[in-house]
């Protein structure tokens, strides 16, 4: 590899020899093609290239869940996903959950239960809740569920376990669990 291919020039920009590729992503139902540096995460592609700022950069290490989006039907921390590795993926952000002016039932429940305080983690919490509801419906077990031989009942302990990857510094957890219970089957 040419040692200059990854260097920044004096203005902080990557040199013309940086490694970039065209990446096709289906974002909230709309096909988008971006030419991205190979190191660009899905989170940065959403925020910096598509102006979709719902997913937040919290820890940038996959530990807080503020960047949670739904990728090909499964929730994922977008700060850990390289965009080039997800060429062709279908990504749903919090902005894509609503159907026109009608909010997604999880979004409605979060509003009805006042399941937020500062709101920074809320988009990730909502996307994680939507993904978690799908995982439970598909029979994915959790630590609380046990061996997975029976369908998971989404009790408060089950919801807390399944949502444990999403942190809220304000401590809105009781209301978040209540909102999810409101929409759980």
UniProtKB/TrEMBL annotation:
Residues 1-20 are annotated as: Disordered. The keyword Nucleotide-binding does not apply. The keyword Iron applies. It holds the Pfam family Fer2. Residues 21-97 form the 2Fe-2S ferredoxin-type domain. PROSITE patterns: 2FE2S_FER_1 (PS00197), 2FE2S_FER_2 (PS51085). This is 2Fe-2S iron-sulfur cluster-binding protein. The lineage of its organism: Bacteria, Bacillati, Actinomycetota, Actinomycetes, Kitasatosporales.
């Amino acid at each position: 590899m040419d040692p200059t291919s990854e260097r920044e020039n004096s203005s902080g920009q990557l040199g013309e020899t940086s490694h970039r590729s065209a990446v096709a992503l289906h974002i909230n139902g709309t096909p988008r093609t971006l030419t991205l540096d190979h190191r660009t995460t899905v989170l940065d592609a959403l925020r910096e290239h598509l102006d979709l700022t719902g997913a937040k950069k919290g820890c940038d290490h996959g530990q807080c869940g503020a960047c949670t989006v739904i990728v090909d039907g499964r929730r994922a921390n977008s700060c850990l996903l390289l965009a080039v590795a997800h060429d062709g993926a279908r990504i749903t952000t919090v902005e894509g959950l609503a159907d026109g002016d009608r909010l997604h039932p999880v979004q409605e429940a979060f509003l009805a239960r006042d399941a937020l305080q500062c709101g920074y983690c809320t988009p990730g919490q909502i996307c994680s809740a939507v993904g978690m509801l799908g995982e439970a419906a598909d029979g994915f077990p959790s630590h609380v569920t046990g061996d997975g031989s029976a369908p998971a009942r989404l009790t408060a302990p089950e919801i807390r376990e399944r949502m444990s990857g999403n942190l809220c510094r304000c401590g809105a957890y009781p209301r978040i669990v209540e909102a999810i219970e409101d929409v759980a089957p």
